[in-house]
Structure formats: structure tokens, C-alpha cells
Design a protein that fits this description.
Elements lengths: L9 E6 L14 H15 L4 E6 L7 H6 L4 H25 L4 E5 L8 E2 L2 H9 L3 E5 L9 H11 L4 E6 L4 E2 L11 E2 L1 E3 H7 L6 H9 L4 E5 L5 H6 L6 E4 L1
Parallel strand pairs: 1-2, 1-6, 2-5, 3-4, 3-5, 6-10, 9-11
Antiparallel strand pairs: 7-8, 10-11
């Protein structure tokens, strides 16, 4: 029975590959992975339907490889395979703590993941299974941020959450500018006009055109994901 205090009953969490690498900067950090899965398990236990799009930058970045001479489409396909590795690791870590999870891949890879089928994904969510979307959109030249925006619209989520290393959207890089101002709320048009570093422009336009609410936040502190689904003003809200 869903908790009546839940503000957002179906969410999509966008995780970067780097979010799983922790301080080591490459691969998957077991402590970081366990923390992320505990946060997901916490909101899942409230009755929230959880979908996840995960990146692959902790193993391979297509654009960086392209700059080093690998043909861009091929580099992007390699990056998609990196997201599958992260998705399977997430699935196993969730299963280990008693949370049913399914991986759906935009690229057919049947021995380890279901093919992406929208209605099947929705049925999994309705059956209290976490759904992890892998391989981006299945197409080169599109980021996993765009995949998150697309899947969020397709499965009709109440909120898209982007987990980052910083606690919201700033007017400049807070890592290099200690005077950077954090927005509590910002519009999609403002993000595009001011070129704020949130998601790529295709992902932002998809969210804007489909009226998808986005919250940008950090998962570094325990309980923040629970706070968001309960309606607390954590991070930065992005909307039309």
C-alpha cells in the first residue's frame, strides 16, 4: 500500500556512471553502489515506482574517445555497452538487498537483459519492480541524459531526478567559483538561454516539450531521495 504522504509516486532516477565510481574515479565502488541501492530501496519500500537510467562514463566516454580518433558512432556504441555493465551491477546489488529489479536494454542483448518495451516496463513498475534502462536510446549521438528525458516521458513519470556531484543547479561552476549561486527553482527556457550545466540541450528540450518536472540534487547524503519523493525542496526544481 503506497504511503499517502508520497508526492511523487513514479520517478525516474538518472545516475551518471561516475556516480557509481565514488572517489576512485573509475569502475564501480562497492561502498558507493551499496549506498545508492540503499537509497533506492528506501523509497521503493514507501511504494514509489522507481525507474533508473544509468550512464557509462565510469568505464568509457564516447565523446572523449571520438576526440582521440575512434569514429563517433562506434565510440557511442561502446559507451552504450558500458551502461549495460552498470545496469547489471545495479540490478544485482538491488536483488542482494531484496529489491526486485529488471534491466531493459535499448540494444538487444537477450542473455542478460530484456529488450526495451514500454508497456512491459510499465507493468514491471506496477508490480513493484525497479526497472533499469540500459544502452541509452540505442542510437549514437544521443546522451544518456536524453535517454532519461525520453524514458521519463514514455513511462509518464511524476518526476525526473538527476543525481549529480553538486546539490543543484548553479549560475556557474561551484567547484571553481565559491561565489556561485544555487537556484531553488529554474525554468527550462532559462537553462537553454543561459546554457546552465544541467543536461544537454536535446534532453532539456524533451523535458520542456513534455512538461516533465526535473529535480537536480546530490545523493551523497542519506535520506535525500526519500525527502524528494515526500515533497521536500531538496536541490533545484526545473519546470516550465
Amino acid at each position: 500500500m503506497p504511503n499517502p504522504d508520497i508526492t511523487y509516486r513514479r520517478i525516474l532516477l538518472k545516475l551518471s556512471g561516475e556516480a557509481l565510481s565514488g572517489d576512485q574515479g573509475f569502475g564501480i565502488n562497492e561502498i558507493t553502489l551499496a549506498h545508492v541501492c540503499e537509497e533506492i530501496s528506501d523509497i521503493h519500500s514507501l511504494g514509489v515506482e522507481v525507474a533508473i537510467v544509468v550512464g557509462g562514463g565510469n568505464f568509457f566516454r564516447g565523446m572523449s574517445a571520438s576526440a582521440q580518433g575512434i569514429e563517433r558512432a562506434s565510440a557511442d556504441y561502446i559507451g552504450m555497452l558500458a551502461t549495460v555493465m552498470n545496469a547489471v551491477a545495479l540490478q544485482q546489488a538491488l536483488l542482494n538487498i531484496g529489491v526486485e529489479a529488471r534491466v531493459q536494454s535499448a540494444i538487444p542483448i537477450s542473455p542478460i537483459a530484456e529488450p526495451y518495451v514500454r508497456m512491459r516496463a510499465v507493468k514491471h513498475l506496477q508490480a513493484s519492480r525497479v526497472v533499469i534502462f540500459a544502452a541509452g536510446t540505442g542510437n549514437p549521438f544521443f546522451t544518456t541524459d536524453t535517454a532519461a528525458s525520453l524514458r521519463a516521458a514514455e513511462i509518464n513519470v511524476n518526476l525526473l531526478i538527476k543525481a549529480t556531484k553538486v546539490d543543484g543547479v548553479y549560475d556557474s561552476d561551484p567547484m571553481s567559483n565559491p561565489q556561485a549561486k544555487r537556484y531553488e527553482q529554474v525554468s527550462y527556457d532559462q537553462i537553454l538561454q543561459e546554457r546552465l550545466a544541467v543536461m544537454d540541450s536535446t534532453a532539456i528540450a524533451l523535458c520542456r516539450d513534455n512538461n516533465t518536472r526535473l529535480r537536480v540534487m546530490s545523493l551523497s547524503e542519506s535520506g535525500t531521495l526519500r525527502g524528494v519523493v515526500l515533497g521536500e525542496p531538496i536541490g533545484t526544481l526545473v519546470s516550465n
